[in-house]
Amino acid sequence: MIRILIISCCLLSLYGCKTSVVIHSEPGKAVVYSEGKKIGVTPCKLDVEFWREYITFSIEKKGYITQDHFIVRRFLDGTGGFFTLGWPEDVHYRLMSKEEQDRRRRWLKME
Known about the structure:
Helices cover 24% and strands 45% of the residues. The strands form three sheets. Strands 3-2-5-6 form a four-stranded antiparallel sheet, with no helix packed on it.
């Protein structure tokens, strides 16, 4: 009974815990949206509840293709050879311009 109480308390304490992931883009100054809300302009910090399995977001910039992304919580290499379950500190994305997409499509049609 005591074990169940201790485990329940530990899980409840994690419920409100948050961490953050910094999102970068190339080129910079792209707008990041998550769950329909504007988060900020890259580089920007996205707050994530620790208990979530994954997060989804999109990156938009005029003249570039809107990109939808997701990040999955994963095991991170900790100190002393231990692994911890968590989120990466920062992620980087390269945006594709609409002109670059058109060039690639034309190139693929030539083959």
